[in-house]
């Protein structure tokens, strides 16, 4: 019983932090980066024109890694050039809470904490 | 409609894989086409006995195009380079000067038609044939959840709670699924290109599986947390 309530509290914390950081990241970082990328003459990645926001996870990965990958799928150098510390922080925060959420979720599934 | 089907929203991961592959491949195709066009221009100029400085100028263009291909698409190039035989002088992939010389002196244009290579053709055909999934799956997820809420409303159950729980589950599962799927695709892109064209198929599968798992977990977490919050707040008397 003790474990279960601790699990539920952690659950709420991780979920809320993921959703809040995701919202902030999308509103503060992605919007600004989109504008910057547009200013430099290239648009949103062509695989994300449907408006689903697939680039959010991709950009977060680029910002957390902090350097160019070998097989870029987006305009990595423009993104890295314009990234502010707050962008990296938000990306990192979002990633940590997502990882925490998934680990917690898997643990919860294994221990049977979900109704 | 069984509502557990809804976690299919994770298929966003597959859409990422498909579309990012498409973008990268078509950029590769464009770069290759530019290289081929510059070689063709050299060939036409040489056939028409153009002055030497003209040929040199075109040669610089071809070298720049080759540089672009080899810098941006190292992985793709190395995947196709070993399918093309090459002598000690190299081939048009490894050495732009070789490409220029072939363009000037070959009997016909076949050796410099880089885009007709069978390996690239198969890559391109995969690119054309795979725009399948899109936002529809997320819309389906939303529709299935809405149906569940409406069903609870009709049967007189606590549909407020269902509404809160399902909305949170929808948000959390879609966000987590897209995020993880996109990340897996970005990580695997290098491997997939090296193993072209089957690599992309495998990567789409892996991205789909990872995104599906993450969306499932996100759904559970979201529903559990929202249910907990709802129950806590409705058991408390605020006034």
Characterise this structure.
The complex is a heterodimer of chains A (115) and B (239). Chain A is mostly helical and 115 residues long. Chain A has one domain (2-43, 54-111). Chain A is 72% helix and 0% strand. Chain A has four helices and no strands. The mean pLDDT of chain A is 83. Helix content of chain B is 75%, strand content 0%. Chain B has eight helices and no strands. Chain B is rod-shaped. The chains are: A mainly alpha (115), B mainly alpha (239). At the A-B interface, α1, α2 and α4 of A face α1, α7 and α8 of B.
What's the structural blueprint in terms of helices and strands?
The complex is a heterodimer of chains A (115) and B (239).
Chain A: H1 2-39, H2 55-65, H3 76-82, H4 85-111
Chain B: H1 12-47, H2 52-72, H3 74-81, H4 96-105, H5 118-128, H6 136-154, H7 159-194, H8 198-235
Helix pairs in contact in B: 1-2, 1-4, 1-5, 1-7, 1-8, 2-4, 6-7, 7-8
Rg value of chain B: 27 Å
Q: Give the termini distance of chain B in whole angstroms.
A: 40 Å
State the order of secondary-structure elements of chain A, H for helix, E for strand: HHHH
Structural class computed from helices and strand pairing of chain A: mainly alpha
Net shape of chain A: elongated
Report helical residue fraction of chain B.
over 70%
Number of helices of chain A: 4
Parts with pLDDT < 50 across at least 5 consecutive residues of chain A:
none
Strand content of chain B: under 5%
Count of beta strands of chain A? 0
- Any idea what the radius of gyration of chain A is? 17 Å
DSSP strand tally of chain B: 0
Q: Between the first and last Cα atoms of chain A, what is the distance in angstroms? A: 14 Å
In short:
The complex is a heterodimer of chains A (115) and B (239). With 115 residues, chain A is an all-alpha fold.
Relevant terms:
heterodimer; A: 115 residues; mainly alpha; 4 helices; B: 239 residues; 2 domains; 75% helix
